[in-house]
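Saturday, quiet lab. Running sequence design on the structure tokens for the scaffold JK sent over.
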């Protein structure tokens, strides 16, 4: 802050603060508060002072939104179609979306961890669990999704499984704690960006342009969703092909094993037959031997009597 002191709009100050590591937040916020007071901008100083220091997990997501991380953008884009499928009770779509959600959630965690590693930070398992909880909440509730997209999260979010997500003290500041700047409209609501230009009469050309941008954004979102579905289908086809190949290999191995078993059984039967045959022959030979021994003994007795 060199030269003549100036005070940027609140949304610019918030954008800077929520791009920082939490350890840097308080010192930088206090510096802006001091500058606002120096310029005798008491209301702005109060607004800046009201900005909450983000938790570690919230800070991770605020920085990821600003990066931005492609996987996080894709993940948040799933929110609207998933909620529509939920409302329509479309079991098939929900199952497909569930598979995409799990894959994209892991991709978000990987990209986020890589981003932090570039900054020399190792994310703790507890913080990553809070990131996952916040991602789940963002899919369940459109307000929670917008809170994540705002890049001004103050804490992690959680979803109870029903109803809206609790956003109390979840963002940079509460609406009641941000007083409007004189001469400007009070825009202290969900995102801490009250410094928007005053409302003007609707401009037909501007409305047409915004309509085109909205339709283009919706088409791009639909195209991304289609691309995600096609990638999921391709992965499913690959898994199916691998499963079929494994099934064929298992069947071949079973056939080979069955052939070995059949050959072993045949050999066992032949051995049993041979054993029976040789046992019978041995019994017959033993009988013959006994008869011969008896005859020899009888003959020896006769010879002894002659003598």
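Result came back. Writing it out in full:
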């Amino acid at each position: 802050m060199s030269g003549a002191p100036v005070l940027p709009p609140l949304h610019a100050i918030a954008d800077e603060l929520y791009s920082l590591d939490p350890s840097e937040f308080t010192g930088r916020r206090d510096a802006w508060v001091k500058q606002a007071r120096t310029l005798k901008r008491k209301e702005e100083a109060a607004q800046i002072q009201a900005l909450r220091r983000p938790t570690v997990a919230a800070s991770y997501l605020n920085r990821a939104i600003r990066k931005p991380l492609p996987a996080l953008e894709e993940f948040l884009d799933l929110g609207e179609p998933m909620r529509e499928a939920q409302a329509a009770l479309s079991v098939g779509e929900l199952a497909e979306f569930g598979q995409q959600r799990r894959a994209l959630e892991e991709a978000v965690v990987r990209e986020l961890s890589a981003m932090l590693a570039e900054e020399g930070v190792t994310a703790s398992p507890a913080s990553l669990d809070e990131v996952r909880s916040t991602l789940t909440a963002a899919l369940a509730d459109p307000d929670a999704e917008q809170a994540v997209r705002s890049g001004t999260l103050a804490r992690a979010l959680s979803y109870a499984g029903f109803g809206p997500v609790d956003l109390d003290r979840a963002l940079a500041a509460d609406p009641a704690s941000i007083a409007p700047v004189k001469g400007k409209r009070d825009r202290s609501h969900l995102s801490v960006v009250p410094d928007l230009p005053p409302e003007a009469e609707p401009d037909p050309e501007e409305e047409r342009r915004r309509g085109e941008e909205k339709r283009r954004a919706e088409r791009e979102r639909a195209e991304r969703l289609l691309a995600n579905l096609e990638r999921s289908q391709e992965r499913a086809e690959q898994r199916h092909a691998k499963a079929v190949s494994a099934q064929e290999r298992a069947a071949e191995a079973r056939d080979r094993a069955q052939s070995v078993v059949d050959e072993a059984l045949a050999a066992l039967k032949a051995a049993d037959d041979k054993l029976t045959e040789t046992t019978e022959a041995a019994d017959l030979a033993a009988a013959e031997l006994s008869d011969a021994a008896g005859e020899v003994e009888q003959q020896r007795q006769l010879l002894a009597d002659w003598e």
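Notes for JK: The radius of gyration is 41 Å. Residues 175-199 have pLDDT under 50 and may be disordered. Ask whether to fix the surface positions before the next round.
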